[in-house]
């Protein structure tokens, strides 16, 4: 099983990475899924200070240092198109 890691940047960007354990040696592997910058509806160069994933709404809420909350929706599309998750 893999986990998704969301990293908020001080430049207003968002990085999505997949964490998984390699079977051969058991080391943790960190794979880039997608990097969002200009795709986010907030202004650039303003640090993201809060992230919240709301599964029922299929949305990612990004709060920044200027007290603006942006919504990335539909959120699963970003993960599915990058092959990070699969549907059952």
UniProtKB/TrEMBL annotation:
<protein>
    <submittedName>
        <fullName>Uncharacterized protein</fullName>
    </submittedName>
</protein>
């Amino acid at each position: 099983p893999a986990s998704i890691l969301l990293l908020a940047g001080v430049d207003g960007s968002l990085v999505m990475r997949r964490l998984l354990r390699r079977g051969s040696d058991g080391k943790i592997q960190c794979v880039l899924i997608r990097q969002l910058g200009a795709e986010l509806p907030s202004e650039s160069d303003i640090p993201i200070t809060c992230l919240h994933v709301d599964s029922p709404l299929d949305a990612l809420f990004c709060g920044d240092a200027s007290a603006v909350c942006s919504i990335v929706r539909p959120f699963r599309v970003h993960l599915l198109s990058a092959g990070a998750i699969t549907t059952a």
